[in-house]
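Quiz preparation item.
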């Protein structure tokens, strides 16, 4: 199961807490709003009833009522009663059929049918012996419906707010993690190109945070690694150069000794062993020197348009001759598409085939078969070197390209230093191609390389 990216995780976390805070805030606000609406409705009712006393007056023993008393303002209905709860004047809201007892100065909630009402009574003395009661009635349900409309609107707005929060959170998180993505991309490029001279370069003057500090640490580490590898490359180059002279002397002295007539057969046998080992050391030194020059960018590379079919046939014939000379009965078969032309360095291409074929012969069966295929589609040349030998274990397939690496079943044996496949990979990549291997343990291996027909690195 594919794990979620850090951007998604941070976005979900940010959205979750924002939703939590928003819901808590909305809950508190709606709760307070409900209380505030009820309190405000009650206050308006009481003030309206108290203010309505100004509309009443007694003139010549007759009660006179201003027309404003009959006006319904703020959904409040006013009515006038005598001491015996006898209705005198005013309006009663539709649907309010109850006739509660007078309770002076107290607001009550009366339920009539499906509607809740606020009822407020106030006594008003017009004369010493003349007291009337002003009753105000307003619908509590209507006030609550206004509150419910607000609640529904908030609930409708909440999903929109969640989506906006997620989008904003994702964009913010992506922008924040963009330097991390740049660091990852740069490190991958460094790993792919093996170019330790490159730097992340995010620790600029205008950016000073934890990520820029991380980038600076990466650059410092890369700088230190680059120095270490440069020293290692220089050491390898120096050692390779220094070993060439004593090895040449050993080979020369072995040749001189073998020309003497007074040596016994046992002595000649021992000298030939020394000569063989010296040749193996010379071959390993040549490989080391080649890789050292390649690492330092000093390895000559001169591509030209050549007939690869003919070159491949020449390499196969040479390796067949060497195999017979070593006493091996391996059959090497070449199956090449005729007249394949491509821009390659002749020396490097022959070295590529030499390493692959000699490797296949060495690790193939004693009476085995090695097949070389070469074909082209006009854009790329595809070559295969197949053997029926010991094969390579799956856990070793990636490591066989490492220098000096030897797996128990794939790269052991005298005469092979573990450098040949490193050289092969460098040659193929230098030509703008790629190489990979397919193998089954105990059944053999197939090395497949592809290089472009036209050199694009000129």
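Solution:
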């Amino acid at each position: 199961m594919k794990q979620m990216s850090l951007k998604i995780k941070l976005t979900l976390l940010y959205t979750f807490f924002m939703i939590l805070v928003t819901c808590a805030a909305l809950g508190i606000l709606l709760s307070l709003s409900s209380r505030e609406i009820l309190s405000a409705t009650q206050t308006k009712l009481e003030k309206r009833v108290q203010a309505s006393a100004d509309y009443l007056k007694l003139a010549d023993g007759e009660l006179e009522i201003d027309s404003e008393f009959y006006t319904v303002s703020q959904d409040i209905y006013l009515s006038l009663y005598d001491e015996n709860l006898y209705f005198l004047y005013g309006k009663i809201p539709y649907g309010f059929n109850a006739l509660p007892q007078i309770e002076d100065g107290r607001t009550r909630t009366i339920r009539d049918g499906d509607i809740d009402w606020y009822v407020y009574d106030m006594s008003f003395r017009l004369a010493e012996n003349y007291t009337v009661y002003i009753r105000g009635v307003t619908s509590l349900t209507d006030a609550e419906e206004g509150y419910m409309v607000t609640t529904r609107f908030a609930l409708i707005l909440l999903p929109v707010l969640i989506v906006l929060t997620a989008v904003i959170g994702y964009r913010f998180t992506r922008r924040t993690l963009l330097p991390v993505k740049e660091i990852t991309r740069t490190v991958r490029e460094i790993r792919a190109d093996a170019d330790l001279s490159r730097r992340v370069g995010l620790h600029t003057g205008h950016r000073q945070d934890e990520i820029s500090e991380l980038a600076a640490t990466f650059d410092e580490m890369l700088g230190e690694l680059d120095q270490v590898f440069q020293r290692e490359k220089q050491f390898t180059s120096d050692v390779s150069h220094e070993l060439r002279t004593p090895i040449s002397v050993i080979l020369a002295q072995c040749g001189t000794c073998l020309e003497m007539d007074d040596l016994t057969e046992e002595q000649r046998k021992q000298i030939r062993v020394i000569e063989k080992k010296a040749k193996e050391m010379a071959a390993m030194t040549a490989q080391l020197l080649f890789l050292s020059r390649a690492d330092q960018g000093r390895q000559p590379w001169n591509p030209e348009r050549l007939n690869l079919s003919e070159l491949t046939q020449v390499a196969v014939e040479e390796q067949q001759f060497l195999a017979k000379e070593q006493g091996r009965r391996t059959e090497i078969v070449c199956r090449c598409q005729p007249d394949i032309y491509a821009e390659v360095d002749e020396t490097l291409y022959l070295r590529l085939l030499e390493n692959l074929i000699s490797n296949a012969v060495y690790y193939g069966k004693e009476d085995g078969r090695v097949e070389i295929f070469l074909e082209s589609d006009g854009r790329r040349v595809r070559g295969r070197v197949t053997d029926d030998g010991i094969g390579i274990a799956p856990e070793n397939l990636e490591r066989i390209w490492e220098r000096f690496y030897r797996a128990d079943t794939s790269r052991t044996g005298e005469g092979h230093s573990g450098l040949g496949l490193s050289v092969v990979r460098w040659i193929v990549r230098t030509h703008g191609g790629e190489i990979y291997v397919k193998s089954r343990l105990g059944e053999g291996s197939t090395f497949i390389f592809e290089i472009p027909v036209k050199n694009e690195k000129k």
